[in-house]
Every structure is written in C-alpha cells, then in structure tokens.
Amino acid sequence: MVTKNDVIVSVCCITYNHKQFIAQSIEGFLMQKTNFPFEIVIGDDCSTDGAADVIKEYKEKYPDKIKLTSGNKNVGAHENMRNIVEACVGKYIALCDGDDFWTDPYKLQKQVDFLEQNPGYVICCHYTRVIDTDYNTLHVDPNPVPLVHTYHDLLTGKQTETKTATVVYRNIPEVNQVFYKPWYFNVFAVDKLLKIFATYSTGLKIYVMPEVMSCYRNHVGGIWSMVKTDARKEMVISDFNLIIRHFSYKWPQKRKLLLLYLKRDILFELRRFRIRKAYNTLKYLFNPLSAS
C-alpha cells in the first residue's frame, strides 16, 4: 500500500461547475505513466451543475488514487486553492484546473525527471494548445524551443508558455507561503503570482520544456479566458500595483516596470480619468526608496 511518504507528485485540481469538462481532466491525470506513486487531489467548490457527482464516481472507482477536499459551502477559488495545496503530500505539486486537460501520458514523468536532475529550477512547465469548446485550435506554437524564466523575467511580464496546466513545482514551504500572505486574496492571477513568488523566494528558475503536453480551454465559464477585455485589463493593472509594492527589485528592473506600465497600462487609466491612480503608480515607481 502506498503511504503519504511515498507520494512523489500531488496533482492539484481546483474546479467549480466544470461538469462538461472535469471527466476529461481526471482521465488526463489517470493516464499518466510514471515510475513513482502520485495522488490526485480535487477541490470542488460546491458546484451546482452536477460536477460533484462526476467527481464522486471517479473517487469511488479509484479510492486509493483520488482525494477530495470539498467543503460544505462555496469558498471561492483562492481559498479552494489553498485548501487543496494544504492537502497535497507529494514532493512536487502539478497544477491543472478542472476545465483544462493533459494530453501526454508521460508528462509528469518528464517534468519530475527534469526537476530531480536540475536543482537550480523550482518549476517546470511546457507548451500548451489553446482550444475552444469544439476542440478547434486557437493557438499553438508550431516550433517549441526550450525557455528559461527568472524572477526578473516574470516580474516584468515575461511568462511565455507557463499556463497553469503546465506547472509542476517543488512542494516546499518557501513556495507555499504565498498562500498565507496578507495580499493573497487581493490577487486576480493567482498562477502568475505563484510563479513570481516561487522564483523570488527561492532564487531558482522556471524551465519550459519544448513539448505540447496540455490543452487550455477558452469557454464561457473560464475564470480568465472569456473575461471581457476591459475587466481583464482592470485585473492586470490591479495585480501590477500589488506586485510592485510587495516584491523587491533593483533599479534596472524598476526601469523595466516603469516602461511596461507606460506602454501597456497608463493610457487605459487616463482614458477613464483615473489621474490619481496613475499618479500614485508613477510616484511609487519613481520613488528611489521603493527599490531595494
């Protein structure tokens, strides 16, 4: 019998009202071929569409493989994520939301092998295919190449091919403390902040394997994929302001952050007459004491 001390990977899946998709996600977990034990931890946030029934059927079929963390009330994606991570006992945590899915049966083996052999990396990702609900491909890189992202890359917006369903990270306190930061519940893009925090707190890097091993689904119920443009921009700017105030960086990075704000965000703010908001962001970035 596999004990919690034997588990190498905890597959972490948050889901809410994904009845249409969750079975495909779970099948993608179950098809993984590995030379190590792994568990599947699913947190259904009190779905109202019948997704919980689908998950329970899988739990009954694979009681030693699947673990549920569902509660009695809806707690939201942030707390659901934190609860699932707390339940993960693996040396590594692999992420995948309940509306996305994996396509390569050796995905976990490949990523764990890389992290085992490369202690200078805290996260291993890979390329992904973006699809719609009819499985039409909306985007996929035709020529994947290996990528490396550092903390400073992520800080200034560079996170190519690191979508949630591609992430496998080291399950260590230095990374997971992000879920207990006082600003955690104010973050919109939790996956982005997780990657920034992981590289910031450990000094390690992210490696992107040049293989397409998952699908990211654009659909109406997606947290990010179908959010209206203006609303998404609001979230991006909010997270930007949180990042510049809670992470440390030197002057070269401050200059890049300033240029990023001027190029990407400031016109959006000014066109909506948010002069004070834009002024406060610029003031913070120009303040020499805000860099360390």
Low-confidence stretches: none
Total number of helices: 11
Distance between the termini: 50 Å
Give a quick account of the main beta sheet: strands, pairing sense, barrel closure.
10 strands, mixed
Structural class: alpha/beta
Helix content: 25-40%
Q: What is the number of beta strands?
A: 10
Percent in strands: 15-25%
Q: Globular, elongated, flat, extended or rod-shaped: what is the shape?
A: globular
Instruction: Compute the CA-based radius of gyration.
Output: 19 Å
The ordered string of helix (H) and strand (E) elements is: EHEHEHEEHEEEHEHHEHHHH
Overall pLDDT: 93
Structure explained in plain terms:
The chain is 39% helix and 19% strand. With 292 residues, the protein is of the alpha/beta class. Strands 1, 2, 3, 4, 5, 6, 7, 8, 9 and 10 form a ten-stranded mixed β-sheet that branches. The model has no long low-confidence stretch (mean pLDDT 93).
